Amino acid sequence: MSADAALARQIAAEAGELLLGIQAAGTLGKALGDAGDARANRFILDRLRAERPDDFVLSEEAADDPARCAARRLWVVDPLDGTQEFCQGRSDWAVHIGLSIDGAPVVGAVALPARGLAICTDQCRAPSAANIPPRVVVSRSRPPAEAVKVADAIGGVLVPMGSAGAKAMAVVLGEADAYVHSGGQYVWDNCAPAAVALAAGLHVSRLDGSPLVYNRADTYLPDLLICAPALAGTILAVLNA
User: Fold this and answer.
1) Is position 80 annotated in a ligand binding site?
2) How many Å apart are CA 207 and CA 197, to the nearest integer?
3) b/e map of 32-58 (b: 16 or more CB within 10 Å)?
4) Which of 224, 201, 235, 188 is nearest to 78 (CA)?
5) Rounded to two decimals, what is the model's pTM?
6) What is the CATH code of the structural domain delimited by 2-120?
7) Alpha-carbon Rg of the chain, whole angstroms?
8) Pairing of strands 224-227, 56-59
9) Which candidate, 45, 158, 215, 221, has a CA 20 to 30 Å from the CA of 134?
10) 122 is in an annotated binding site
């Protein structure tokens, strides 16, 4: 697994550098996002095919191969998570390189290129202290009612943020205490973040407490909870009351 983790971290970091170059050379707007998605996707797929030729890859920006469902190992990739933030010149966008094995998010790296970070499953640890008041990261454009309910229950505050990877890594880095999402995600939005958060010792599940399962035919995986373990029981009780 250490070789897979090192590869995930290297590819995520290098794709992030590529995207920073595209961002610096381009004009902000949709065309910038299209260029970033396409070029980062091509770079990542080429690297994975060269380094792991026997593995399947599922990317947001590439056609799906249904044969992947019979494979034990599946790389799940989002070449540019947070395209809107990338196009606006913000820092809260990410690159996701995840590896599911037998449906579980086992290995992954999430790069936050604008912050110079690439956080990987073999180099992360859960934060030791909580924020006061607790911080709950949510979508900038559509904070879910569930997150509002959780924040009210734990005396927390909502912190709007961009990409799923940026929000998940805020919890991993101790900058937030919970990430509560509902209303739609796909496996590439959360496979790498889930793998990193689990490796860091955080609680990771669906909002009903069930595990996140990957490499199913349906790529839709709509909801997610990442939080400090000490908060998990309270948050799940609030969500499922």
Assistant:
1) yes
2) 15
3) bbebbbebbbbbbbebbeeebeebbbb
4) 188
5) 0.96
6) 3.30.540.10
7) 17
8) unpaired
9) 221
10) no
Q: Chain-centre distance of CA 220, in angstroms? A: 14
74 close to 55: Cβ distance less than 8 angstroms: yes
Rounded distance between C-alpha atoms, residue 95 and residue 176, angstroms: 20
Beta carbons of 188 and 77 less than 8 angstroms apart: yes
Structure tokens belonging to residue 143: 């904070």
How does pLDDT run across 131-160, given as a tens digit for each residue? Answer: 999 999 998 878 889 999 999 999 999 999
> What is the rounded distance in angstroms from the CA atom of residue 28 to the CA atom of residue 84?
10
Structure token pair of residue 219: 């790529």
**How many angstroms separate the CA atoms of 177 and 107, rounded?**
22
Can you count the helices (H) and strands (E) in the chain? 7, 10
Task: Of 36, 91, 74, give the one whose Cα is nearest residue 187.
Answer: 74
78 is in an annotated binding site: yes
Measured from the Cβ of residue 25, the count of other Cβ atoms closer than 10 Å reads: 9
How buried is residue 30: exposed, middle or buried, by Cβ count under 10 Å (0-12/13-18/19+)? Answer: exposed
Could you please state the CATH topology (level 3) that the domain comprising 135-239 is classified under. D-Maltodextrin-Binding Protein; domain 2 (3.40.190)
> What average pLDDT does range 36-57 have in this prediction?
98
What pLDDT, in 10s, does the model give residues 157-188?
999 999 999 999 999 999 999 999 998 899 99
Give me the pLDDT at residue 183, please.
84
Element (H, E) at 3: helix 2-25
Rounded CA-CA distance 180/226 in Å is 7
